[in-house]
Design a protein that fits this description.
By secondary structure, the chain is of the alpha/beta class. It has 14 helices and 13 strands. One of its GO terms (biological process) is alpha-amino acid metabolic process.
Length: 409
């Protein structure tokens, strides 16, 4: 039978990530392409203990649960985010989701009609673009710099397109790793409030900041989320999205959305249609872990920060090789990615094909841009997933591919 798929499904099948994942199953293949944390830093023993406790003491973990999510876990998130991020939410303002990706998908489903304009950072995460394309949105890229979105550009685009949403990630944006300045956060929030544009704030990487207590500077800075600036979450201008995929384990598939109760209520109804609920077992397992006396989430995240900072510094050293002489990049002060403008004339997709043949992959910039032409000479490298030896090997192989291309030009 010949199947007639929706036109928008082309965006799903056209992604090279499927090919990269197939190659990644080979033991010798190195992937710097995906949005993965370090597998070697998963809290395996603590997770094993938590799982044993849940399964032996809480048989209801295998039953259906609340569609909005396990109440004690939602309460833990509410209290934690109030204490450490100054966000004051009620329980009816928190929805547990199957990862942050589902939270983005749900708000797009319930808020965006076919043809509606939606603003995104340029570049932005491939997942965000896929969701909006599937929804039939008109995606409008907003230019930014090392402080965040450029306010004049944002204001002009809002006036011209009257968008329904603005998708942003102010803390270590995917893929650029940019940390928005405090002034820019306030300006963007004020602009969207003035124009009545809902902000969707993805803070999946916000806890992965690289502290350096020896020096004053961006490494020691933390800024409040847009949601916290919006009357501590009470203003209704920001839908906040978080995740435990980057700070515990992505296999648990636990993310969450926090915002005005009307948004959460409608998103919750849409979630029931999609999957009824996120895994009750995994939610209870995570809660057991977070409440454990033998596991400290803050200490674990601090461990991730220290190791990720080391891996980023290693990547920085590897980029001093001759192959990268004319590449341009800004070292991020947190997150999981390094965004690189390739030496002149190098195209990211051709370089990817050559790199895959050598046993390594990265994310081409074309997947991160509304207009592929703007990402033709850029790549995103993940420095958190590969171990140090893998990072050395992967960067060596990509450097080989770069040298081969530049030698021919």
């Amino acid at each position: 039978m010949k199947y007639s798929f929706a036109t928008r499904a082309e965006w799903i099948m056209g992604s090279p990530f499927k090919h990269i994942r197939l190659n990644s199953q080979q033991a010798s293949f190195v992937s710097l392409a995906e949005e993965l944390p370090a597998s070697d830093l998963f809290p395996l023993e603590a997770l094993h203990t938590a799982a044993t406790t849940v399964l032996s003491s809480h048989p209801m973990a295998l039953q259906y649960g609340d569609a909005e999510g396990f109440i004690p876990l939602r309460e833990w998130i509410r209290a934690e985010w109030k204490q450490h991020k100054q966000m004051e939410m009620n329980m009816n303002q928190i929805l547990l989701t199957t990862g942050s990706q589902q939270a983005m998908d749900l708000i797009a489903r319930v808020y965006v009609d076919l043809g509606d304009a939606v603003l995104v950072e340029n570049p932005t995460s491939p997942g965000c673009l896929q969701i909006l394309r599937m929804q039939g949105a008109t995606i409008i890229p907003v230019e930014g710099d090392q402080e965040g979105l450029r306010l004049q550009s944002l204001d002009e685009l809002i006036e011209r397109h009257h968008p329904k949403l603005l998708f942003v990630s102010p803390n270590f944006s995917n893929p650029t790793g940019v940390l928005w300045s405090m002034d820019r956060r306030k300006q963007v929030l004020d602009c969207c409030r003035r124009h009545k544009v809902l902000i969707v704030e993805d803070d999946s990487y916000g806890d992965l900041y690289f502290e350096d207590t020896r020096t004053e500077g961006p490494f020691s800075r933390r800024y409040p989320t847009l949601c916290a600036l919006d009357e501590h979450g009470k203003g209704g201008q920001v839908l906040y999205i978080g995740s435990f995929s980057k700070t515990v384990a992505p296999g648990l598939r636990i993310g969450f959305a926090m915002g005005h109760h009307q948004l959460i209520e409608v998103m919750g109804a849409a979630k029931q249609l999609a999957d009824w609920q996120s895994s009750n077992l995994n939610q209870r397992l995570l809660y057991q872990l977070l409440e454990s006396t033998t596991f400290d989430w803050h200490e674990h995240v601090a461990l991730l920060r220290r190791e990720y900072r080391i891996r980023l510094r290693l990547m920085e050293e590897l980029l001093k090789r001759p192959a990268w002489r004319n590449a341009r990049y800004h070292l991020p002060t947190g997150g999981m990615f390094l965004w690189i403008q390739l030496p002149g004339g190098l195209q990211s997709e051709l370089l990817l094909k050559s790199s895959i043949s050598k046993g390594v992959a990265f994310c081409p910039g074309t997947l991160c841009c509304v207009d592929k032409k703007l990402g033709m000479e850029a790549i995103r490298l993940n420095f958190t997933h590969p171990g140090r030896d893998e990072l050395l090997l992967g960067m060596h192989l990509i450097s080989e591919a770069v040298n081969e291309f530049t030698a021919r030009s």
